[in-house]
Specification:
Nitrilase/N-carbamoyl-D-aminoacid amidohydrolase, 513 residues, 42% helix, 2 domains, alpha/beta
C-alpha cells in the first residue's frame, strides 16, 4: 500500500477527531494506518519520516492557532510534539524488531503513555494533544476519569487502535471483533451509569460571580490605563453583586497595575487592592480572586532566584503571573503560576538556552523567564478551599490535586483570537471537574467564562467577545477521588515498565554480540 497516503490518512483521522468540532470515534482508528506502515517499512528511517509527517499534520491542524500569540511558539510546539511522537513510533519499531511482535506492541502501549507522562513533566511540556483530552466534549462517556485521569483515556485509545489493527491483519476474526466491541462499549456503559446516578449535595455551595471584562489583549489591555480598566471591571461587577455573593472572580492579568510584593505586605495598599477593599465595605460577605502581574524586589544580600532580572548593579527582581486573593476579613494572599508556558513565560533548559537568549534579546537580567513556585497555594473562602489554576495550568490533571472544594480557572484566551484554541481550553476544564469531582468556575478575559459541575457539564457559559458577568450558586464538596489521591499513576507505572523493557532489551543485545 502507498505509505504516504496511509500517513496522510492517519494525520487526518487524528486531527479531525479533536475537540471542539471533531468526531471523536475517529481517534480509535487514527493509528491503524501507521501500524500498517510499520509492518511494511524497510527501516527505521522510513518509520520516522512517515510517522513524523502524520503527527506533523495532526499537530498543525489542531494547534495552528498558537501563531496568533507567538510565531516561535507555534513552530516550536508543532515540531517538538511531532518529533516526540515520531520518535516514540521509531523506538517501538526498533524494539519490536529486536524482540517479538507481542512484546513490541505491548511496548508501544506503555511507551506512548510514558511519552505523554514525560510531556507533562519536562521543560518543553506541551500536553495539549494528550490522547485522553479528545473526549473533553463528551463527559458522559469518561466519568471513570475520576479513577484513571486523562491518561486512562490515552490507554483506551491506544489499546483499541492496536486491536483494530490486529482485526485487520487477522482476516477479521469474529472473536476479536467481539472483544474490541466489548472494550469499546464497556467503559461507555459504566460511565453512563455513573453519569446518570451522580448526585451532589446542594446544601454546600458558594454564591459566585464571574466577570468577563472582554479587554482585547492586543489593542487595549496593555495600552489603556489600569485605572479605567479597573473601574470598568468594578462597574460590571456591581451589576451582578448582591449581599449574598461569596466570591467574585476575575480573569488572568485583570489587574494591569504594577503590584510589588514585599515582606511588609505593602502591596495591600496599592490602588487596585484598595479599590477592591472599598467594594467589600459595600458587600461585607465578598471574597475576591483576580489575576495580576506581580513583582518582587530582592534585598542586596538575599539569594537570587534563577529567573531574577537585573534593574541595575546588584538590584534584581522577579515577575510572576499571579492570582491575588482578597478575603472578606481583610487578609490578602497571592498564588504564583507554577506551570509556565515554554518559550513564552519561561526559557526551557535555562542552563543551556539562557546564554543564547541573552544574545538575541536584551532582557536585562539573569533570565527572561517569569518566576514560579513549586506548590499550589489554595485560598480559604468562607471555610471552603478554592484551588486557583492560571490559564495553561488547567490542562494538567495533577495541578488540581490536594485538599479542595472548588477549582477556579482564570485565563486570558484572547491571545488565540477566535479559533479552536479557546474552545479546546474550555473543554479541558471539564476533564478536571470529572477527575476531581469538583465544580470548576472559569473566568476568561474575552471568553469563554463558565460554570462546570462535577460531572463535567457546562451549566452556564458566556459567549466569545462580550463583556458579561455570570452569577451562580456553585456546589462544593469534600470528595476525594482515586485520581485525587494517586494522580498520574498510570504514567508512572508505564514509565517504569518502559524503562525495564528498554534495559532488558539492551542487555540482551549486548550479551549476544
Amino acid at each position: 500500500m502507498n505509505k504516504f497516503l496511509l500517513a496522510l490518512l492517519s494525520g487526518l483521522l487524528l486531527a479531525f477527531s479533536w475537540p471542539s468540532s471533531g468526531i471523536f470515534p475517529l481517534i480509535f482508528i487514527g493509528f491503524v494506518p501507521l501500524f500498517i506502515i510499520e509492518t511494511e517499512a524497510e527501516n527505521g528511517k522510513q518509520i520516522f519520516c512517515f510517522s513524523f509527517f502524520a503527527f506533523f499534520l495532526f499537530n498543525l491542524i489542531t494547534t495552528y492557532w498558537i501563531y496568533n500569540a507567538t510565531i516561535f511558539g507555534v513552530v516550536a510546539a508543532i515540531l517538538v510534539n511531532s518529533i516526540l511522537m515520531a520518535a516514540t513510533f521509531w523506538l517501538f519499531f526498533k524494539i519490536k524488531k529486536l524482540t517479538s511482535n507481542r512484546l513490541g506492541y505491548f511496548f508501544f502501549i506503555v511507551l506512548w503513555i510514558s511519552m505523554e507522562y514525560l510531556h507533562l513533566n519536562w521543560d518543553l511540556s506541551w500536553p495539549w494533544l494528550t490522547l485522553g483530552n479528545v473526549f473533553a466534549t463528551y463527559p458522559f462517556i469518561i466519568q471513570w476519569y475520576e479513577f484513571t485521569g486523562f491518561l486512562g483515556g490515552s490507554l483506551w485509545v491506544i489499546l483499541i487502535n492496536l486491536l483494530l489493527f490486529y482485526f485487520y491483519k487477522n482476516k477479521r476474526s469474529k472473536k476479536l471483533f467481539l472483544c474490541i466491541l466489548l472494550i469499546f462499549i464497556f467503559p461507555i456503559v459504566i460511565s453512563s451509569i455513573m453519569y446518570f446516578n451522580f448526585e451532589t449535595n446542594d446544601d454546600n455551595y458558594l454564591d459566585v460571580l464571574i466577570i468577563q471584562p472582554n479587554v482585547d489583549p492586543y489593542s487595549d489591555k496593555f495600552v489603556t490605563n489600569y485605572e479605567s480598566q479597573l473601574e470598568d471591571f468594578i462597574v460590571l461587577a456591581k451589576k451582578g453583586l448582591s449581599k449574598e455573593t461569596d466570591l467574585l472572580i476575575g480573569p488572568e492579568t485583570a489587574l494591569v497595575e504594577q503590584i510589588w510584593e514585599d515582606d511588609n505586605n505593602s502591596y495591600e495598599k496599592t490602588h487596585s487592592i484598595a479599590l477592591f477593599k472599598e467594594l467589600q465595605k459595600q458587600y461585607p460577605n465578598l471574597n475576591i480572586i483576580v489575576g495580576a502581574s506581580t513583582y518582587r524586589l530582592f534585598s542586596p544580600n538575599e539569594k537570587k532566584s534563577s529567573t531574577a532580572r537585573k534593574i541595575r548593579d546588584e538590584v534584581f527582581y522577579d515577575i510572576y503571573n499571579s492570582a491575588i486573593y482578597i478575603s472578606n476579613t481583610g487578609f490578602v494572599d497571592i498564588y504564583h503560576k507554577t506551570k509556565l508556558v515554554p518559550g513564552v513565560e519561561k526559557m526551557p533548559f535555562p542552563r543551556l538556552l539562557d546564554p543564547l537568549a541573552k544574545l538575541a534579546v536584551n532582557l536585562g537580567g539573569i533570565s527572561g523567564s517569569l518566576g514560579s513556585i513549586n506548590y499550589i497555594n489554595s485560598f480559604k473562602v468562607n471555610h471552603k478551599i478554592v484551588s486557583p489554576l492560571i490559564c495553561y495550568e488547567s490542562i494538567y490533571g495533577e495541578m488540581a490535586l490536594g485538599p479542595t472544594n472548588l477549582v477556579a480557572v482564570i485565563t486570558n484566551d484572547g491571545w488565540w483570537k477566535k479559533t479552536a484554541g479557546f474552545k479546546q481550553h474550555l473543554h479541558y476544564s471539564r476533564l478536571r471537574a470529572i477527575e476531581q469531582r469538583k465544580s470548576v468556575i472559569r473566568s476568561a478575559n474575552t471568553g469563554i467564562s463558565a460554570v462546570i459541575n462535577a460531572r463535567g457539564d457546562i451549566i452556564k457559559q458566556s459567549l466569545w467577545d462580550e463583556a458579561v458577568y455570570l452569577s451562580e450558586k456553585v456546589n462544593t464538596n469534600n470528595q476525594v477521588t482515586f485520581y485525587s489521591h494517586f494522580g498520574d499513576y498510570i504514567g508512572r507505572i508505564c514509565s517504569f515498565i518502559s524503562a525495564i523493557i528498554l534495559i532488558v532489551t539492551f542487555v540482551n543485545q549486548r550479551l549476544q554480540v
